[in-house]
What does this fold into?
Amino acid sequence: MIVDPSKHRDPIEYEFASMPYMPVMLSLPAMPETTPCHHCDKCDKKFDYKKSLNDHIEDDHLTKNTKMGFFSSFQYFGHPKGKGPKLVEGPIEELVVDNNKLKTVFINANSIISPYKRSTTKLGIQESKAHVVIIAESKLGKKHTEFKVRGYHTVANLIRKSNAGGLVVMAKDTILLHSVSMKNILPEIQFISFKFGDITFFTVYRSPSYGITDRKTHHQKLIDHLDCEIDKVEASGSRYIIAGDFNLSTLAKNNFEPAGSWVPATDSKIETNDKANNACTDQASQGQDSCHYAATDACTDQASQGQDSINDAATDACTNRASQGQDSVHDAPANVKQAKADKKAKKDKKKTRRKAGQNLTSTPDPDGKEDSTIDQIWHDFVHRRSLDQWVEEPTFHRYNSVTQVYTETMTDLVLSPPSMPIHQIKVDKDLFQGRFDHYAVVFVVDLNFKTNETPRVRRLHKKENWQKFYNLLLSYKLFDTCPRDSVDTMANYITAKIMEAYNEACPLVEAKQPPPGGHFHRETKSFLKRTTRLRATLKLLTPCTPEHNNLWMKLKILQKCVDAMVKNDLVQNQIKLLERARHDHTNLYAHIKQAKSKSSIVGPIVNMDGELCSSDQGITDSFSNLLGDQLKRSYDPYTKPVNWRQVHREGPSEPDCIDSLYVTPTMVKYHITKSRRGSAAGPDGVPMEAIAVASDILVEPLAVLYNMINESTKVPKCFRTARVKMLYKKGEKSDMLNYRPLSMSNHIGKIWERLVNDKLISHLEKNKLLSNNQHGFRPFRGTTTNLIRLWEIIMGKVEADGGLVELWNYDLQKAFDKLDHPKVLELLHKSGVRGRLGKTIQNWLTTRTQTVEVGTSKSEEREVGRSCCQGSVLGPILWLLYIQSLTTILDSMGVEYMAYADDISIVQRMSTKEDKEKFERVLEVLQEWADEYNMKWSPLKTQRIVFKYQHCREAHDPFEMYFGGKIVKPLDSTCVSLGVIFDKNLTFTSQIRKVCNQIRALTSLIRQEVSNITPSLLRKYYQVYVLPALTYCSQVWHPGNEAQLRDVEKAVKSFWRLSKYGPPQDHIPPRLLLIILDLNYVKKLKDGNHVLDFDEIFETEKYRTDRIDEEDKLPTIRKNLNVSRTKFSYRARAYWNLIPKDIRSLTYSGFKSRARAYVMDHAREFLNIGNKDKEIPHKIFEPHVGCSDGKTSKEPTMDGKSIIKVQIKELRKKYKNTFTNLSGSTECVRTEKTKDMQ
It folds into this structure.
């Protein structure tokens, strides 16, 4: 290092100042000029050397190596973020990649239920980068949420039952598998087949347990099913691969040769020490029962069945169970209850097999004849099909620290015929962190295919981006600069300027996905690497040696630490994500939505010509052809055009007609505010959020544009174009009919539609042109009002006429897609719409086009000749006018019915032939209307239920009825109307059970998907998800019987156990909550703020008395039927009369708070009203209401005996001191105590 002498002159001279002579200072060479080449990114300083830069960073900037001295609590949170996401320049081009190898991973995960196992499995799948992933023994049940991995979608999920068996097939989002079939061959055997290209994959999981099936039949059924499937594939000329967990380790190790015909292998993969080998028993794949060996000098080679579970026993004994694969070691002095349970289960199993005619002595096979038979049938199958087995290494491993035995068997196999060679196969022991008792089998197949690897992009939507967007749009001065020569020119100019500002202010950036395990702490990653190195070292050591045992113990301890760190990182990551939006909780909603949503992958599909389409463009064109055929015009263009200048002869008079619409900026501003900001963009790409941000700038030019449209009757082309996304419903994904279209229009056009829609609804409601029985798409009406009126009609008929009252629910096939344009325009004219407004709506409806989009591919524009334009704003009101032509006929015939959009429910009593003939005429009218208006009823989806009368026997069986050429039979027990289940016995037991199941499912969802949730987020989750499920149409199904609501109460209590603090202080128990909702609904009816009539619902005129009631209560009525108490008008009447008059006379807002407080304070009175069974009051348990300190009451439910015990206990405490202090007779005390007890 060169030193500058000028910097050291003074210290040297000072040091030698006392010396008798001065030393000669040698001249140093001149310091060369250096150019600073090391730059500090944090403070822009430059340094000559790298070390100087590092010293500067460590001394002047905070890093992970900075020593903070006594600041021991300081935590380093990492370096500042980089320069931000990478901007995308230019248009996004589709990137199609040619592939020639298909990578597949098979793993037996032994349960992916727990969050930790799911996290480990997700990490392994993402690290493998496999195209197809097969997971055996998933153990998922119906109550578990779908297993999701970023970048993958679930192709098939075959469930055996909860916590047992199961198969899951997943594929990359760019891989489209087809021809998927699933089957449980036996409860212990799961089978899934799927195709990709010309290769068919057969995946199998065979449990080592046999259940009630004998062993030979168990194996034979699997082989027969494989033979059947292989014959189908070979007949079509395709290739196939069989992969799965067969639990046939011994057979596979010996190339499927039967017992006694093979030569023991010399290069066995199973290594044991000499001491263990002296007493080792090799069990065949069929799993013969083995004897007990002492742990000190014995080991058991576990069978291929793979469900080995050896527990450390206090007696140091190991028991290898038989082919059932139930390996367990029982503690002699402990687990007595478990031993009894096992004994009882074994007896029950024998009884079941005896009933099924099975041979109970089939499991013990001392001669080995059955084992040889099973070996032979597998040998015959493999050699008959000329199958090659490609796995050569053990895939199952287990080390028992008690017996000091390390076991490895080959249970997971990959088989294929000679025509399907597998060139690359590997048993990856490090994938999935080695946390499973099975290793992953990775194999690669030669196959040419293409994948769409177009990078995902997103927009920057930060506050500063929106501010820049606003300023740019303001600088354009749209109101002054936009052209006004035509509506198309003006609309295109406004849209172009919005997109210009939007692209500049909110640019596209690459949406990079986080790396696998990106949420792990750096220490967790370091420990994961250490465990991987230890596992690799452990494989090199001889099992059961001291070095092996010591290292195995270290690995076990280290793995426990890693497990705890991984779980902690998972919890901390979820907390960070969920708490990031503390005020609006958007992250919580997004997380739950993602957990509940299904895969949106489209295809591959079979087009109308029967060809399989797997590319995005092919799928897009196929759906475009299908929709174009379905929405083709069913008429010659306007043989009878509508004369909008004249008033319709059957419509309202001219003063009651509407012919124009004038739009003000205030009206535009109102509808922009009411629109959803998160709505998807239309074909122009302008999101609703951009319009909402710049609403102050856009209201005036948009008002001018809309008025130009209404004056010229011409609608811009961009308002008449929509883009269509296909959403998968259910069933086979290759069937195009199992998808439904979702249409998305431009938001500027939707705002105009809302303005027109408001004008039409106001006109129709003002002139009462819609049926009073229609409750769909109308203000102040909904499913609750529909079902309340429907249930009142049903109960009124049952009370008046007795039994044989029937409910018919009708369904139209693709009703909205079959709406006929000329007919709906004629009905619009008939309703009083004329002039320029009518002509404008006609131009908007009859010249619409749409394009189908799948991925980044788009189809050509297709004309929409039919439908009410699903996804548009005007579509619902047009459908109401269309269905009004039917409801008008039903009203004229006096039919008792209720309608909600296209759902129609008719109530009819058919006890005589005259009733039957009358109703047959109604069915004929329905069919005639459908033929005239190009609609089609679905007889198979028509529901018919006959209600019982007090469980009495009917005079005769229901009549045989036909509709649409099909016989319609009554349902056995229940029917569903608008999401509410009606029971045949006039109760809502099934609906209450459904509500309980929904609450339990939501509880299970939050328990599985969120590892740690705060009380505030749990409260929000309850309000957003649980409460709607609990209160949906509760005015209809609330039974008024407290005993029936106890299950609901238990389900809600189970939900609040997710928080250690219990429910919040203001929580209202479900039983009281439903009462409060009933009271609020009555108040709305009473004040006239509802579409339902108060006097009609409560029959005030019918039950009015001459006596003056100063309390202004509803008249008390009595019903002979117990089911009458489920009626809203009967149940809510009693609740209303309990409320004091001064509270009932308040306004609605004041009534809600005061009535709630009154119900909470007098809970026992209100609950006793629902005491249908006449139980004594103390048997109705108290609701668990939040206490003043925020904790819930922990007092248990008590019956009469419990209350007496508590009273006796309190009396003992009361007189305890008296008995202690009295030295004389205690007779007086006993007498006093007896009086108190009495």
About this structure: The chain has a mean pLDDT of 79. The first helix runs from residue 9 to 15.
